[in-house]
Structures are given as C-alpha cells and as structure tokens.
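Suppose a colleague, Dr. K., hands you the sequence of a protein chain of 435 amino acids and asks what its three-dimensional shape might be. Before reaching for any lab equipment, you can write down a predicted structure in token form. Begin with the sequence itself:
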Amino acid sequence: MLKRLTDFFTRKKHPVFAAALKMQRPKKLYPKSPQALSKSNSEVFRFQNWDRPTRLEFYRFLRDHIPILNSVVWTWTRLCAAPNRLEIIGDGGQKTKAQKLLRGLDERLYQFPFARFGGTDAVLAQFFNSLFTLGAVAGEIVLNASKTQIEKFFFIDPATLGFVWDKSGNCKIFQETEAGEKLLNPHSVYYAGLDAEMQNPHGRSILGSIPFVAKVEQSLVADMQKTMHNAGYNRIHIKIKPPEKRELETDETYLERANKYFDDTVRAVKELAPEDNPVTWNDVEIEYIGPKGPLSSSESWYITHKAMVEDICAGTHLDPFLLGYSYGTTQTWARFKYELVLRQVVSVQRIAKRFMEWIYNLELALNGMENLKAEFHFDNRKSFDILENARAEQMKLDNLIKKQGAGYITADEAKSQAQGKTCKGEACLAPTKKK
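The predicted structure, expressed as tokens, is then:
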C-alpha cells in the first residue's frame, strides 16, 4: 500500500520522495494498550479506512525528511507547548497536600523514565507533535497495583486504532495487535482527533493538504541543483585563436602543432588553482556566458520556489516568516499574522488543557480529594508590544477617570470596566448625573 501511495507523489529518481519506496512499515513497534480487552470482528462495524495507517506513516516520512514540513510541525508544537501552570480550586485545608501530590505525579507521568522527570513538558511536546503530524493523539492511563494513584501515561500510535459501534450505537475504540483487534477500556483510554468529523472521528493531520505541493517544491529544488550551474551562474568561455601556418609547413605538421598548442592551453587552464591567474599570449580570449536581461534564471527559480513555500504555509496555517523565510514582510502584517496564529494556538491548547485536567483531577479523586479541582493554564503572553500595551492601558484608565469625573459613570462602574467586566443594569443605559 505504501508503494501505491508514494507512486502518486514520487517522480522517478527523486532524491527525497524515492526513499519512501524503500520504507517498510515497522512490525509491531508501537506501544500496546496495557488493559486491552478481546472482542471478535463479528461484533463490530468498522470504518472503511484501509489506507489510514499508510497515510500516517507517510506523514511521518514527510515531517522527518522535508525541511519546511519539519519546521511546520516543530513551530506548531513549540508554540502550543507554551509555559504552563497548575491552579487548585476548592475549599478546605488540603490544597498544600494536593499540590505536593500533583508534583509527584508530574515527576512520574512521562512513560520513559530515562527522561529524568520529563513530566508535563515532555508529555505536552509529544502530545502536540502527534496531534499535528498524525491529526490525533492517543494514550492510556495506568494505575499502580493498589489503584491509589496514576503510575504513568502511555502514548499509543493512532495508526493502530480504529472505531467500532456496538448494537446499541455506542462508539468504542479498538487497537490492532498481533492477537487481533482488542477493544480498549473507555475509562482509561484517551483519544483526541484534530478537526474530527461526525463520520470520521480519527482527526485530520495538518500535513494532509500539502503532500502534492511538497512534491513539487522538492522537485523544483532537485531541478535547481542540475540547472543552476548552466543557467543561474555565468560560465567561462575560453577562445583560442589558431596559430598561423608557416611557410613550407605541411598540413599534417600544422595540424599537429595547432592541436598540441590547444591541448597545452586547455591543460594549463585546468591546472589553475583558485588563487592563480592565467598567463597566455594575446591569442587566448576569456569571456563569460550568462543570461541576458534583468531577470536571471536564479531569480526565476527564487520566485517559483517562493510560491511553493507560500502554498505550503497556507496549507499548514502558518506564514513564511514564522518558518524562517524573509520575503520582505512588513512589521504590521507580521504582527497581525502572529496575533492570528496565537488565536489558533489558544484554540488548540484547549484540547491539551482538558487532557491535563482530566489526568490531574483523576489523581485527586483517587486520593479522596473530590472537593478540589485542578485547572491547567498556558502562558501565552507576548514579549513584544509591551510599551504599546502599557500606553493603551494608561489611556483607558485616564478615559475612565474623566468619565467618572464628568458623572457619566459611577465609581463602581469605573472599577468594573477597569477590571475588564461589562456593566449591568440601568446605569449602563443612562449617564449618572451629579447631585
């Protein structure tokens, strides 16, 4: 199946995409669900998605071998895996105990112990990497032997998972293993699909819309490597004037002498070191051969490649300057685009926010702290526009003071608006007059 898929995106002898033809799907290297339950095939109705494991493996190949796509996944992952903090809400004197409890969970949560307290940061990095590359993230919580605390969270390869419906119409999730299809425990398994649909809860990879464009972009780079020396840069043209024929010199002797002179000149030019200069008689002329006009083929290649890069960026919801390309973007446009990207980041972070709160609140419940609630927050504060934001805040406060002084709002309304709250009641509809 992989060959059928890559044939569509592969041109013969292409250096990058041709390597996909030699790829072999790894044999059962993905983590198994530790708590899988058996279920026969006759009891399930399955999606017709026979090519999904192949597509997900191909997305991994694109991410690992195409520089711009690697940068796309890296940028989205690091933007979303922002600094974070945990807040415990609730009454009672158990907050200190709960904080200590969740700190201990953070130290052992990541499935690979050699990461040395990878914790939330490592989990979130892998969470978003899988979400953007494969369009989904999946895993399972495993408790300790006494069922009193969470031991670890194990990630599961989404390519091995599928959805089934029982006779009651309830959707369940299963995993393909060596022993067959295993129905997973819905209470311990987590699955989130990016932009999942009603008829396809698997989710969609951010790379799903750009493999064809990536193929064109890589083909363009390969062609550039072959043609740039001929068209992009000037070449040296050495002209050797044939020697004059001497009196009484036979044609055979003349040709032999002329050819020897030609061969000696060619050999002398080939043996020149980069720091040497040619020294000849005035019968040797050296000139350059290159494209004429203001638009050389190197500039033409740059414009074409720029269009391909912008197409890929559009398909992955980013902008060239976010991936390290400098196309003369204005500062105003760059700020607007970055603000837009941050809004998208916040919407995707909500998936991880609920995921982490599910884990932390489950740990609190296992330890009898149902009266407390854990809330997970990301810190997306910007490091630029600090001065502009401070000036805007100062103007807003000055405006509120003037409104209150003129009697248009009360002190309570001014305080409420300064805190970002909307006023309520009749006081918002009519100005308050001074007595």
